[in-house]
Amino acid sequence: MEPQADAAEHPVSVTGGRTISPWLVFGLTFALLLSDHMSRQALNVVFPLLKEEWALPDSRLAVLNSVVALVVGLLTFPLSLLADRWGRVRSLVLMAITWSAATLLCADASDYGQLLGGRVLTGVGEAAYGSVGIAVVLGVFPSHRRASLSGAFMAGGSFGSTIGLALGGAIAVHLGWRCSFAAMAIFGLLLAVLFWVFVTQAKVDRYQHGDTTATSGEATTIAGRRAPVSSLFSVAAVNCVYLGSGLQLFVAAVLLAWTPSFLNRYYAMPLDRAGALAAVFVLLTGAGMIVCGVITDRLSHERPTRKWTTAISYSLLAAALLIVGFTLDAGGLQLVLLGAGAFFSAGASGPATAMVAHLAHDSVRAAGFGALTLANNLLGMASGPFVVGVLADRLGLLAALRLAPLAYIGAVVALLIGKRCYPAGVSRLAQLELRLSVTPADAARSADGERLRR
Fold first, then answer.
1. What CATH number corresponds to the domain at position 430?
2. Is the pLDDT of residue 217 over 60?
3. Residue 451 contacts by C-beta under 8 Å, 6 or more apart in sequence?
């Protein structure tokens, strides 16, 4: 089911003497994830320019942000299922080309409707990248690295957002907001070409299974047998992971989307400076995802249930820091507390991904990550910025931001319930793996033997 731990640290020979390193797979997949979020988050830093140029209220600006996450949420699961069957690697290349082309269309938009259409298409391209990308990465590393790798990989979203905010703000100030989108699009297209050249489905499959003749359709199951998709939703523990992860990302998404506007309005920062400081907050979010993932792996190596405990702890820390931070007056102490809150705001992401990996059969693991991405986007990345935008039109942006951390209450409750259900979920997966390991020939022999005994 899982790659061998001793083999996953070294390049593996493939046909024709070529080799592939798991770190090369990780590096290129991670770089495309940077591009994904650079294209998505470059919009946030130009909110003030769009608001002035097209006279847009905060709620309509929020729609431009949330529509990408909404489309990602709606399409990630079906597209992840298709990628499991069509080939995960070639799917990643097609996705990257799609979101990069859509970002170019955003650069050429002449009104709000055209920009909204470009953002919808961006969401189509990005829909399953996170779930399929992490499935490719985890497939070439040993299982004891899952929380660390998941946290590091998902932190690519924060790092990509950091670059998108900082670089996008600088380009927008000097060349205009359209050039910000164009730069992100060109970067994505270049990376798609590099990925297509260096990573192929055959290399990944042979890496996982040795230098054999296995095809991508046989890569994860015996005799092509696949676990039912219903197994991704029939376990209470994994459903709690989906819910808890989505709610904790509600707040992280709010920080990503609205920090530049918060700094611009309440600290009177110019656009480029607000974008640069917001990028620091996003960088802290990404660093927190990595550090929290490493801590989780260290603490849960012998006791897997500690993944739940660490995820709950990160959510509680983030809630406390952000609630206090947003109640303070503008100043250095407020920024320090908000930065600390940002560090823990998405800390449960790595543990949550590792939990799904432990509770989903390998043959549908990308679809399992797709289900997690669905929850993350519908409950978090799409809902958070939109809800705060609507509240900001009525209460003011600061009042809306003060309410956002309350979403952590729901996340903590879901994770506490999931922790109680976790042993039963692991037992159910073991039973499923046992059933799938029995080939039709074995089943026939067993039936014949039973008839003879009778």
1. 1.20.1250.20
2. no
3. none
Is residue 352 within 8 A of residue 369, CB to CB? The reply is: no
Among 248, 255, 254, 425, which Cα is nearest to 350's? 248
Kindly state the tokens that stand for 373: 């991405």
Query: Of the candidates 380, 332, 294, 399, which has an alpha carbon nearest to the alpha carbon of residue 68?
Result: 380
Q: How far apart are the first and last CA of the chain?
A: 35
Within 10 angstroms of residue 247's Cβ, the number of other Cβ atoms is 27
Distance CA 334, CA 412 (A): 25
Residues 6+ apart with CB under 8 A from 398: 262, 266, 326
- Give the pLDDT band of residue 6 (cuts 50, 70, 90): very low
> What residue type is 244 in one-letter code?
G
The encoded tokens of residue 270 equal: 């110019």
Contact (Cβ atoms closer than 8 angstroms) between residue 232 and residue 358: no
Q: Are the CB atoms for 426 and 238 separated by under 8 Å?
A: no
Return the residue matching tokens 């140029």: 53
Task: Check pLDDT > 70 for residue 184.
Answer: yes
Alpha carbon separation from 406 to 323, 328, 394, 411 (Å, rounded): 8, 17, 18, 9
- Cross-strand partners of 19: 13
Q: What is the pTM of this model?
A: 0.68
- Does 318 reside within a domain? yes
Residue 421's domain spans which residues?
21-204+228-439
Q: Is 12 left (phi over 0), alpha (psi -120 to 50) or beta?
A: beta
Q: What is the dihedral of CA 427, 430, 431, 433, to 10 degrees?
A: 160
Residue 2 falls within a domain, yes or no?
Answer: no
Give the amino acid at 271.
Answer: L
Closest residue by Cα to residue 187 from 37, 71, 381: 37
Assess if residue 196 is contained within a domain: yes
Number of structural domains (the chain) is: 1
421 belongs to a structural domain: yes
Confidence label for 441 from pLDDT (cuts 50, 70 and 90): low
Instruction: Please tell me the predicted confidence (pLDDT) of residue 418.
Output: 92
Stretch 211-216: mean pLDDT: 37
Overall size of the chain counted in residues? 454
| Contact between residue 382 and residue 339 where contact means Cβ atoms under 8 Å apart | no
Long-range interactions of 256-259: CB distance < 8 A, separation 24+: 256/41, 256/44, 256/158, 256/161, 256/282, 256/285, 256/385, 257/44, 257/62, 257/65, 257/384, 257/385, 257/388, 258/44, 258/385, 258/388, 258/389, 258/392, 258/397, 258/401
